[in-house]
Amino acid sequence: MKEIVDVGLPPLNQPFSWAVKSAGLLFTAHGPVRPDGSIDTGPVEAQARLTLVNLRRAVEAAGGTLADVTQVLIYMTDVQDMKAIDAVYREFFEAPYPNRSSMGVAGLVVPGMKLEIVAYAVIPAAA
Question: Where does the secretion signal sit in this chain (predicted)?
Answer without folding.
Answer: none
